[in-house]
């Protein structure tokens, strides 16, 4: 269950989920996928504070949080500040067509294995690794997150998160 | 006062004299035109524009019958005495304008009889020219068109009433439609909310089982919890698909089968088993979606676990719709290049008396383990929905393409 020993260079992931048991399940999957949990928020306000404090590489964001339907606002804040967001929701239809700028959606209910596979895929996206395979079926990519082609890695660069990510390219 | 009266009398006298002169000049005894004017049922008058205020100098009998005035009451007066309170001032203006310009005029104007009864007068006015081409008189004829006019007005009233009723009805229809749309929206919201909650609760259950598994040490416990987790996941997958697409009421088995097989492979870590799909769109009703999903899940799980023991191989999954004895059915098969007798036997035995057998009864499914055929592991036949939602199903399967990305 423990990821690689290169703990400092593992991408960090913020979990924004109001169900604490589900959040724990997600955190385990994050570790299984070789990433590090940056924190867990159950409220939108908390999520923004944690995101500002830790600048995670990736945030997994539920739409409905303890302080209401604040997930989209959280996502927009994180994206504006250069973070990457993937929504995790059972209410896919509540998301706008452009996913509010998020990289993708993981539909609930997900399974441990499905989520780990999705996270491994996202890890490659973060690391600007050329990806040969299609995303796992539980991960729906948004229009702002074209899968990286092997030839043109720079074309997806659109914010500071890519600089951050490119410093961690050795991770796989 | 008395001067005015004298003036009036003088004017009448002048008009009478002018009328008599006209009559004497144009209607000596035996003149058929004069006789016709006198005797026609069409009301006619003649006025003299050379006299002050263009007074009437001749009226025929029909005019007296129409208006109720005696001849003596008409001669010497301008014919505006027929007008009254409800006469449209625009009509009066029009007459004056035409007469001043010596033009022919036809107009329908509201006039009043002697007893005050209003009537619609279809009035013709035409200047009469003398030999030198100068205007000598005006000729006017009157026809009572009250009946027609009232009919027209009745029709107009009716039309406006109809238009009013129509717009009222349309308003009611709009209101009703808006109310129905509102209800529909509320219900859709409710359905989405419910669907959302079901999925969240399934997620919670799956996570709970996952967490429980981590606290259990024994292989046996792990296996039991894993079996529950996979089944919950299969149900979760159904709910994720069920209300996401336009095909409410129908459940696309082909997409689900792909997903579940891929999931089982992921879960079991059997990337050495090559997946080959040969599926066509097959749908079952939403009510059957859960049991069908569990059924397929059990079958695929057993195949992954027992049919590829210590070897690589290919799992060829076939799904086809067909008609048998008038009933629409689908056939699901799992095949490989060759199964050993033990693999086939183990797989079959693992499902005996299990959930699979129970669901088969419920779904009216026939399971054929194809004994003697080393290439086919199992073949299942069960009834499915008529493809009346085929349009949305096609959309669904083609839509799923980029999301799933594994074709």
TrEMBL record, chain A:
The modification 4-aspartylphosphate is found at residue 62. Gene3D superfamilies: 3.40.50.2300. PROSITE patterns: RESPONSE_REGULATORY. The keyword Transcription regulation applies. It holds the Pfam family Response_reg. Keywords: Phosphoprotein, Transcription, Transcription regulation. The keyword Acyltransferase does not apply. This is Response regulatory domain-containing protein. It comes from Methylobacterium iners.
Automatic annotation (TrEMBL), chain B:
CDD domains: PAS. Residues 390-401 have a biased composition (Low complexity). Residues 103-157 form the PAC domain. Keywords: Chromophore, Flavoprotein, FMN. The keyword Flavoprotein applies. The keyword Protein biosynthesis does not apply. Residues 388-407 are annotated as: Disordered. It comes from the Bacteria. Residues 53-102 form the PAS domain. This is Histidine kinase. It comes from Methylobacterium iners.
